[in-house]
Amino acid sequence: xxxxxxxxxxxxxxxxxxxxxxxxxxxxxxxxxxxxxxxxxxxxxxxxxxxxxxxxxxxxxxxxxxxxxxxxxxxxxxxxxxxxxxxxxxxxxxxxxxxxxxxxxxxxxxx
Length: 111
Known about the structure:
CATH superfamily: Periplasmic binding protein-like II
Shape: globular
Number of helices: 4
CATH architecture: 3-Layer(aba) Sandwich
Oligomer: single chain
CATH class: Alpha Beta
Strand order of the largest sheet: 2-1-3
Distance between the termini: 28 Å
């Protein structure tokens, strides 16, 4: 994907998130906050997580925090344990978690 395509994709994602949506924060089973697993400070996921947290906080009318992590492996572990509702991961790590290979060999597949 070229630079124009990436910019277009990011613009579409931001536009979709910025659209007004009914606040569900008063609904049953709605979380009181959302944590996003990112990565170490200075990394791409950390920066993206900060921006996403700001947008989601505004759109959902709900506190959304960026959690500093060691990266995709820890983000999947946080998602699996319920400590995070969102997390940035790479495709290779996600595939290994899904298939219970690599770091996840001998464990239940991540879902």
